[in-house]
Design goal:
Length: 530
């Protein structure tokens, strides 16, 4: 049965005593909006009215579209939540024939009214408070933890389906939810595209479905806590927090990913890397949950350290300045400062200068006075000895020895870094190749699906037309048969009738007796005919 429109619900709602069957709603009053008509809020799938009864408020959630097996789903969700205390959910009741609209009864969901703001509104108002954003992120993580513990997934987590009441979070809109007991059902919808993995399909349904949207929300809140200006930078707030569907098609060139990557927070970078991997994943079951953040970050740190094993040296003259805990240098690729030449070598410098002067004087004397070569060699024999002594003294210096060791260590580390970089480059190439292959395979499969669909349609049309002409032939034959049957029956009947009349007449012979109304002559003629 087609569902009423928002306007039709609004009209019906003007007489709650007539349209509702639930006692509370019947006696309540819808909160008015513009022109005094009942105020309605809609996310597209339902129209939600606030009904006030005394100091209590209810939400009457009216469906705008059919949800497959809605009654069964809501029963399973209701039964599951009833047995557990889960403060993040709101009390609700599914009423199958809950509202009368234009003479027809339709289902509604009667809910407790949540007096708060949607997460979207809350973030927009409080985004400049780092503390508020950090708290919201941690509260959200706790909420997710609770869902995970119970094996529940909301399946459409987004900024309009989460509400904030005095800083605490509540979830609403349970149409798409998964609870244990709903295994084997498909999803009733694929959720808000700005919060869902691009590959999510209706067949994907289970406790892992929230994992992707968890990262979308969690990273947005953490990013805002670190740098509130990203909201303006990324035009946040229009059906999203910071990420949109378009960011998931090419994360490496997405504005949102880039803007968040630029925030100088080492931990956030690791989370963003994890999320990026999640976007690239084709299997939704491989996406981790934010509740495993600690484990994920530790593993990633280890990996980063392994890949970029640059020494944290604090030796004389070889300094790497980095604040403790900040590992952004790994990404920023800061250069290791090289040691300058040792300055404190006065003796060696003096000896060197003296030797040079002596060599010059000896050369000059030889040139001017033509001293015999043998004589000159005698005078100059001290020079190589001096040079050897200077070199030995220089090399024997502690600082020079250490520098030599450091230089060789640096050379060794540099070669290690180069070989690791080469390994990374090869790995990246391999991953890119795999990605390319997978994309190619997906493209081929998509094309194949389209071709198969076309073929199927064609086949179906062909069969339909064959069936149709066969049906027509049968109808024609049936018609003919009917006409023939009627004619035969008519002929048979006529024959029987004639025989019957003849039999009847022959049973009543007319002889000499007189029949009233017949003259003598006619009576005589009839009796002659038998
Ligand atoms: N129980 C409730 N209390 C307060 N507001 C609600 C409640 N349920 C829904 N709303 C409001 O109505 C909006 C749409 O409701 P929702 O159930 O999410 O419908 P849709 O399926 O169309 O998204 C929500 O974003 C929220 O602002
Ligand atoms: Mg909603």
């Amino acid at each position: 049965m087609p569902k009423p429109t928002l306007q039709e619900y609004q009209e019906a709602m003007q007489r709650p005593d007539l349209c509702f069957i639930d006692g509370d709603l019947k006696k309540g009053k819808p909160v008015p909006g513009v022109f005094g008509l009942p105020k309605v809020i809609s996310g597209g799938f339902a129209g939600v009215f606030q009904i006030k009864k005394g100091n209590k408020s209810y939400a009457a959630r009216c469906f705008l579209r059919d949800v497959r097996d809605i009654e069964k789903r809501y029963k399973a969700i209701h039964d599951f939540l009833k047995r557990r205390r889960m403060p993040y959910f709101v009390k609700f009741e599914y009423i199958d024939q809950g509202i009368l609209v234009k003479g027809k009864k339709h289902p509604i969901l009667k809910m407790e009214w949540v007096n708060g703001q949607t997460l979207g509104e809350y973030v927009e108002k409080n985004r400049r408070s780092s503390q508020a954003m950090e708290d919201a992120a941690q509260n959200f993580k706790e909420l997710v933890n609770e869902l995970k513990k119970r094996g529940v997934a909301h399946c459409d987590l987004h900024d309009q389906n989460i509400m904030v009441v005095d800083g605490e979070l509540r979830i609403i809109d349970y149409d798409a939810m998964f609870v244990p007991g709903l295994e084997g059902f498909p999803s009733s919808e694929v959720g808000h595209t700005n919060y869902q993995h691009p590959e999510r399909r209706l067949e994907d349904f289970g406790p892992h479905i929230d994992n992707f949207s968890e990262w979308v929300i969690y990273i947005s809140l953490i990013a805002l806590a670190r740098k509130p200006e990203v909201w303006e930078e990324l035009n946040g707030g229009d059906q999203c927090l910071l990420f949109r569907r378009t960011d998931y098609t090419d994360p490496d060139h997405s504005k949102a990913f880039r803007a968040i990557e630029d925030i100088p927070d080492d931990n956030l970078k690791l989370l963003l890397d994890t999320f990026k991997d999640a976007v690239y994943t084709y299997n939704l079951q491989d996406i981790p949950s934010i509740v495993d953040e600690g484990k994920i970050v530790r593993r990633r740190r280890q990996l980063v350290n392994e890949v970029a094993k640059i020494p944290q040296i604090s030796m004389d003259g070889l300094e790497v300045t980095m604040p403790r805990r900040d590992r952004s240098w790994i990404w920023a690729n800061k250069e290791v400062e090289r040691m300058s030449l040792p300055k404190n070598m006065r003796l060696e410098r003096l000896a060197l200068a003296f030797t040079l002067l002596y060599t010059l004087v000896a050369g000059g004397v030889y040139a001017v006075y033509h001293v015999p070569l043998l004589e000159l060699a005698r005078y100059a024999s001290g020079i190589p000895v001096m040079a050897l002594l200077i070199t030995a003294s220089y090399l024997g210096r502690d600082v020079v020895r250490k520098r030599g060791q450091k230089a060789s260590r640096i050379r060794q580390l540099e070669s290690e870094v180069r070989s690791r970089q080469e390994r990374i480059r090869r790995e990246v190439e391999r991953v890119n190749q795999i990605k390319e292959d997978v994309s190619q395979r997906i493209r081929e499969l998509k094309e194949r699906i389209v071709a198969l669909k076309n073929q199927e349609e064609l086949e179906l049309k062909k069969r339909e037309s064959t069936h149709w002409s066969r049906l027509q032939q049968i109808t024609e034959a049936k018609k003919e048969f009917k006409v023939q049957e009627r004619n035969e029956r008519y002929a048979l009947l006529k024959e029987k009738q004639r025989a019957h009349i003849a039999a009847q007449l022959s049973a009543h012979r007319i002889n000499g007796s007189r029949t009233p109304g017949l003259g003598l002559v006619k009576s005589f003629m009839l009796s002659r005919m038998g």
